[in-house]
Design a protein that fits this description.
heterodimer; A: alpha/beta; Rossmann fold; 2 domains; 7-stranded mixed β-sheet; 9 helices; 19% strand; B: alpha/beta; 30% helix; 20% strand; globular; EC 3.1.1.61 (chain B); chemotaxis (chain B); hydrolase (chain B)
């Protein structure tokens, strides 16, 4: 059975940091280990061969990142979260701003962006919202831009959409092409996809709503703490932050600058600069 | 010396189960000695999209309130934990949980292999792994990890299982120290509890 010890995992994250400036040194250990083992198995590489390849073959890094980062997600994941968005959070933002900005931090293959755009369209406000979707993995961003997903994923996505109680038929939003569901381009007219690394990247804009669901679970607590500071700085006062349903901010230094708006869905509001 | 040659060096109990395991888990939790000294870490297959209800159903008769941990939550002695819906649940070296949304394993998220395997890595010979009724082979590899790292392995008596695929897969994958009916597992945990008094 393939295995790797912690010293070797540290050698790998140190190498990637020194050579490519991607910082995985504070990633949660057990999932980082599973991801690296997965790559070794997929590419038939020993630890030494993997280190050698990362050292000598810079073009390998994108492929490596693509496998290392977790890109499994679904549209309208946690339908109850999306209902709260539609019925409480977005209307609360609109009380003060007719036009507003949303950041999808760690957007992966874009399923959450699709969900958001469908929801905003059904609310009749898609024109009024600017969305920025970022990820550190350039390959996955290219896939997100295509908005094309295997048709087999649509069964689950549609089930979630029905639980979200969308107002249309889910199939209205895409057409089938070669076994893929290709989503209508007009959904994404106000979306820009950008490469951005939450760990090493700078603050680049201010937002009314930041979504970062099930991304920080791959970070250790020290890194979660740093990233929360960045979200805090990237939010307007009284802006909202949404994290995954089983994530928590309570141990972070900046936790007291937010209040809990919805504990079940983990939606927070910035109340202090 | 107790019937099962137990001692008080164990630090955690981890339980995996799937189809047909609910009644067994309820029985174990309802007859757990008060003040049971170890954390009980459970990964049970469950509906992906139903977040609520399961933990409440398990808690009704349980001696200890069952909780679904948050990501990075510390593992406390005497607490009973359940892997939340649609997340894998790992145990980390600092004795806390880490959740993830990685690919399904054995068609499952949460996957029992992940919870058992990471627990084995952290607790080594100080872990007791229990695998109950189930309809697929998830958990077999995790039980192998527990055995390979010196932990104690128990599976539910296959003839008592509603579906015996899961314990049989574990029996085929590794050395299992005890094959027990749920009532015996309850007795076993009571014996274990006495070692800490």
């Amino acid at each position: 059975m393939l295995d790797i010890d912690i010293a070797d995992l540290k050698r790998i994250s140190e190498l990637i940091y020194q050579k490519y400036n991607y910082d995985f040194r504070n990633y949660a250990m057990s999932s980082f280990k599973r991801r690296v083992l997965r790559i070794m198995e997929l590419k038939k590489l020993s630890v030494d061969a993997l280190l050698k390849k990362l050292t000598e073959q810079p073009s390998f890094i994108n492929e490596f990142l693509d496998e290392l980062t977790v890109n499994v997600t679904e549209m309208f994941r946690d339908p109850s979260f999306w209902r709260i968005m539609r019925e409480e959070i977005i209307p609360a933002i609109m009380l003060n701003h007719k036009q507003f900005k949303i950041w999808h931090a760690g957007c992966s293959s874009g399923e959450e962006v699709v969900s958001m755009c469908i929801m905003l369209k059904e609310m009749g406000i898609l024109h009024d919202v600017t969305l920025i979707a970022t990820d550190l993995d350039v390959n996955i961003l290219e896939r997100a831009k295509l908005a094309s997903y295997p048709i087999k994923n649509m069964e689950l996505n549609e089930k979630n959409y029905i639980r979200f109680q969308g107002t249309r038929s889910f199939k209205d939003y895409y057409r089938e092409e070669n076994g893929n569901a290709v989503f209508n381009k007009d959904l994404f007219m106000n979306v820009s996809f950008r490469r951005h690394d939450l760990v090493t990247g700078d603050i680049f804009n201010k937002f009314d709503l930041v979504l970062c669901r099930n991304v920080m679970i791959y970070f250790n607590q020290a890194l979660q703490n740093e990233v929360l500071k960045k979200f805090h700085e990237s939010l307007f006062k009284y802006g909202y932050l949404a994290i995954g349903s089983k994530e928590s901010l309570i141990w972070c230094d900046y936790a007291n600058r937010f209040i809990v708006v919805n504990n079940e869905e983990k939606i927070y509001k910035k109340i202090k600069d | 010396m107790s019937k099962y040659n137990l001692n008080n060096s164990y630090k955690a109990v981890v339980i995996g189960g799937s189809a047909g395991s609910f009644q067994g888990v309820v029985k174990i939790l309802s007859q757990l000695p008060k003040g049971f000294p170890l954390p009980i870490i459970m990964c049970l297959h469950r509906l992906k999209h139903v977040r609520n209800g399961f933990v409440e159903a398990l808690s009704i008769k349980s001696v200890v309130q069952v909780t679904e941990p948050h990501d990075k939550e510390n593992i406390k002695k005497g607490s009973v934990y359940l892997a939340p819906a649609n997340y894998h649940m790992s145990v980390e070296l600092g004795l806390y949980f880490a959740l993830s949304t990685e690919e399904m394993i054995n068609n499952s998220r949460p996957a029992i292999d992940i919870t058992l395997g990471t627990s084995a890595f952290v607790y080594k010979e100080k872990l007791i792994g229990i695998l109950l009724s189930g309809a697929n082979k998830d958990g077999a590899l995790g039980m192998k990890h527990i055995h390979d790292r010196g932990g104690l392995t128990i599976v539910q008596e296959p003839s008592e299982c509603m579906i015996d695929t899961m314990p049989r897969a574990a029996l085929a994958a590794t050395k299992i120290d005890h094959i027990m009916k749920v009532d015996q597992i309850v007795e076993f945990l009571k014996e274990l509890d006495k070692q800490y008094r």
